[in-house]
Amino acid sequence: MDKSSTIDIPVTGQVPRHVAVIMDGNGRWAKQRFLPRIAGHKRGAEAVRNIVRACGERGVEYLTLFAFSSENWRRPADEVSFLMQLFVIALQQEVSKLHENGVRFKVIGDLSRFESELVRLIHDAEHLTRDNRRLTLTVAANYGGRWDILQAANRMLREKPELAAGFSETDLMPYLSLNYAPEPDLFIRTGGEQRISNFVLWQLAYTELYFTDLLWPDFDTSALDRAIASYQQRERRFGRTSEQLAQPALNITRRLTG
Ligand code: IPE
Ligand code: IPE
Ligand code: MG
Fold this sequence. Notes:
The protein is of the alpha/beta class. 40% of the residues lie in helices and 14% in strands. The protein has helices at residues 26-32, 37-58, 77-100, 116-128, 145-159, 169-172, 221-233, 242-246, and strands at 18-22, 62-69, 103-108, 135-143, 186-189, 208-211. Strands 3-4-2-1-5-6 form a 6-stranded parallel beta sheet, with helices on both faces. The mean pLDDT is 95. Residues 23-28, 68, 72, 83, 191 line the site of one 3-methylbut-3-enyl trihydrogen diphosphate.
C-alpha cells in the first residue's frame, strides 16, 4: 500500500509518478463537426491509446483515466449503451497490445451494473496483465469518489467491526479502490470545465491541478507535455514553507502523526 500525503511527505520527482485525467469534451468535439456525440467518444478512445503510450515513454508509472462516472447513467440511454459497447470493443482490441507493452490494466468503480460480458472482459484483462509493472493503467468506470469512500468504510467495518468506535486514515486506506497506487501527482481535466465531478476525491488532497480548454479528442502528446511542464513549475510544499524547501537538510521525510 502506498503512503498518505497527509501522514508522510511524499518524495516527488520531475516526472509525475501518477497522472489522473478527466477526459472531457468528446461531445463538444463532435458537435463542432456536426457529428453525433458518439463520434466524439470514438475519437476520444483513440486519444486514449496515444496518451497511454506517451505516459509509458515519459516514465509515468500510474495513469488513471475517468471513463464513465456514477452520474453518467443520467445521459440518454443510447449514449450510455454506445459507451458500454465502446468499452467492450476497446477491451477486445487493446488488451493484448497493452500486455505486450508491459501495462498492468485495472478498473475501479462499481461493476455490478455492467453486463456480464463486460465484467468478464475486465476480469480477464486484469488477470492477464497483473504482473506487468511498466505502467499501471486504471480506468475508472461507473466510478464516483463518494462511492469509493463509502464502499471502503463499509467493507472495513464489516471486516473489523471494532473500528466503529473510531478509525484512522491508515485503517481506511487499504479499502480504497486505488490502494495499489500512490496518490496522483498531477490531475488533468480537458474540456474547459474546472471541477472534479466526483472523481477520486480522497486521493486528490495534495495533487497539482491542471485544466485545459482542449477537448479530449484533441489532447495529444504535445498537450501532455505542456501539462507535465506546468507540473514541473509547481512548488509542492505539502504544508511546509518555501524556505524549508530551500534547505534540503530539513527535507527529510518525517512522520507527522500516528
Ligand atoms: C467525456 O466527454 C466523456 C464521458 C463523460 C463519457 P463528454 O461526453 O462529457 O463531452 P462533453 O462534455 O459533452 O463535450
Ligand atoms: C466527467 O465528465 C466524467 C468523465 C469524464 C467520465 P462529465 O462531462 O460527466 O462531467 P460534468 O457532468 O460536466 O461535471
Ligand atoms: Mg462532459
